[in-house]
Design a protein that fits this description.
Elements (H helix, E strand, L loop, with lengths): L10 E5 L13 H5 L15 H6 L27 H6 E2 L19 E3 L6 E3 L14 E2 L9 H4 L6 E5 H15 L4 H16 L16 H15 L6 H7 L3 H7 L7 E7 L8 H5 L7 H7 L1 E7 L19 H6 L18
Parallel strand pairs: 3-7
Antiparallel strand pairs: 1-6, 2-5, 3-4, 7-8
Helix pairs in contact: 5-6, 5-7, 6-7
C-alpha cells in the first residue's frame, strides 16, 4: 500500500515526495530505515523485542493464549499475525532488498577472539549492527537500488484508511451508550480481516462481550500493531495519559529490550558460510533450534525514559511568550495558567 501513489484507496492524507535532484523533496525515511550496511544513514528504526513479542498469532489471539498456535521465544516468527512479516525484519527472513530475489537478512553474531568480543558476520561495518536484533521493513521499497535511495520519492501516508476505522472504533467505545460497543467491534474486526487474520468464530481473535475498559485496551493494542513506526503510538498514549503506565508494564524493569542472537560454537555447529548456504539442507527452524542462542538486552539501562506528568501539556515556547506578553505559561512549566480550566 505504501508504493502506490496514484488512486491509492488506502491514502486519506498524504505528504508527497519526489525524486527531483534539484529543488526536490526527497523522502529520507527509506534510506534511514533499511540496514546500515546498505545505506550509510540506515538502521534508524529498529523494533524492540517487546514490540516483536506483542504481535498476536495468526488466529488473532495473544501469544501464549492461542489454543491453535503455540508460541515460544526461540521460534518467535512462526504463525504470527500477517502484519508481523510486513513490519518486522528478523534474522533469517527473506527480504528482497535491492531487488535481489531470495535475499536473506542475517543479524546474528559470532563469538571470536578472546573474552566476550562479538563480531557480526554479514554486516561489514561492525558498528552498523542492529542494536535490537531487528530492522523495520514497513514502507521500505525493496526494489530501489542504492543510487535511488538519496532521492527516494515514496509518499508518506499521514492518515490511511485503517486509521479511519480505528478512530471510529475508539470514538464509539468512548461514547459508551447502547449499540456503540458493537460499532467498536466492527472497526476492530474490519482492520483484522483486511490484515489477513483468521476469522475463527467470526471475531478474528477478539474476545466476545468485552467490557468497555477491555474493548478500549484492545483498540489501543490494535493501533500499536497496525501503526507501528508510523508516529501514532506516542500520541495515542499521551491522549489517554497512559505513558507512565505503559512504561511500567513493558517488563519487570520498566525498560525496553532488544535481542542479541548468537551463533553457538563447538562440535557440530556450522560456520557462518555453511549456516547461510541455501544448499545445506537446513531450514530456518533447524537453525534457530539447534545453532542459535539468545541474549535479551536492556536498551534503557543507561538512558531510562524519564517521563513526568507535566509533559502531558507542552510548555509554551519562550519565543511565543516573548512575542505576545498576554500569553501566560502553563502552571506545570512554571507559569500560572491552568490548561484544565
Amino acid at each position: 500500500m505504501w508504493f502506490s501513489e496514484v488512486n491509492n484507496p488506502e491514502a486519506v492524507l498524504v505528504t508527497g515526495f519526489n525524486t527531483a535532484t534539484t529543488n526536490g523533496k526527497a523522502n529520507t525515511y527509506d534510506p534511514q530505515t533499511r540496514p546500515k550496511y546498505l545505506s550509510t544513514s540506515g538502521g534508524s528504526n529498529q523494533p524492540s523485542w517487546d514490540l516483536v513479542r506483542a504481535y498476536p498469532m495468526l488466529d488473532g489471539k495473544k501469544s501464549g493464549t492461542s489454543t491453535k498456535y503455540t508460541y515460544n521465544d526461540q521460534l518467535f516468527y512462526k504463525n504470527r499475525d500477517p502484519r508481523f512479516n510486513m513490519t518486522i525484519a528478523y534474522n533469517g527472513c527473506t527480504w528482497p532488498l535491492l531487488n535481489v530475489s531470495g535475499y536473506r537478512l542475517w543479524t546474528y553474531y559470532t563469538v571470536s577472539g578472546t573474552g566476550n568480543k562479538d563480531t557480526i558476520t554479514t554486516e561489514t561495518n561492525k558498528s552498523a549492527a542492529s542494536s535490537t536484533g531487528f530492522y523495520l521493513r514497513k514502507a521500505v521499497n525493496p526494489a530501489l537500488s542504492l543510487s535511488d535511495l538519496l532521492y527516494c520519492g515514496t509518499d508518506w501516508m499521514e492518515i490511511r484508511y485503517a486509521e479511519v476505522l480505528l478512530n471510529l472504533a475508539e470514538s464509539a467505545c468512548g461514547i459508551n451508550r447502547t449499540g456503540q460497543g458493537q460499532e467498536a467491534y466492527e472497526g476492530l474486526i474490519a482492520v483484522r480481516k483486511r490484515a489477513g487474520i483468521e476469522a475463527g468464530d467470526g471475531l478474528y481473535g477478539l474476545t466476545a462481550n468485552m467490557s468497555r475498559a477491555d474493548l478500549f485496551t484492545a483498540i489501543l493494542d490494535e493501533r500499536r500493531i497496525e501503526f507501528a513506526f508510523e508516529g501514532k503510538r506516542f500520541w495515542d498514549l499521551r491522549r489517554w495519559r497512559l505513558i507512565e503506565k505503559t512504561l511500567n508494564e513493558i517488563n519487570t524493569t520498566g525498560h525496553r529490550t532488544g535481542l542479541r542472537i548468537l551463533l553457538k560454537s563447538g562440535t557440530g555447529i556450522p560456520d557462518a558460510t555453511t549456516l547461510e548456504s541455501t544448499r545445506n539442507g537446513l531450514n530456518l527452524d533447524d537453525i534457530y533450534t539447534n545453532y542459535l542462542k539468545f541474549e535479551v538486552r536492556d536498551m534503557d539501562k543507561d538512558f531510562k525514559i524519564n517521563w513526568k506528568p507535566e509533559y502531558y501539556f507542552f510548555g509554551i515556547p519562550t519565543s511565543a511568550l516573548n512575542n505576545n506578553p498576554n500569553l501566560i505559561q502553563n502552571n506545570t512549566w512554571g507559569g500560572t495558567f491552568d490548561p484544565l480550566l
